[in-house]
Structure prediction request, 78 residues.
Amino acid sequence: MVAQQRIVSLQQHHAQLEHEIGEEQKRPYPDFLSIKRMKLRKLAIKQEISHLLSITSSSSLPTQNRSGIKKPTAVAVS
Prediction:
């Protein structure tokens, strides 16, 4: 459950960075170094989210492939 809370928190931070990047890019003279730093932080957050999702999905959720589609489970036929 702690991992799920962390994922939600990271998703909110990711969305906030997305907004801040957009606002900075709208300025007449955007600070490109600041934008680059925000984009790098956003990428790091996205990677952490992916890592946490892979950990939680492998332990408690049905297996999924990289595209996010659930893998079919084997069905025993009698």
Observations:
- Helices lie at 2-26, 32-60.
- Residues 2-60 form one domain.
- Residues 21 and 27 are 10 Å apart (CA to CA).
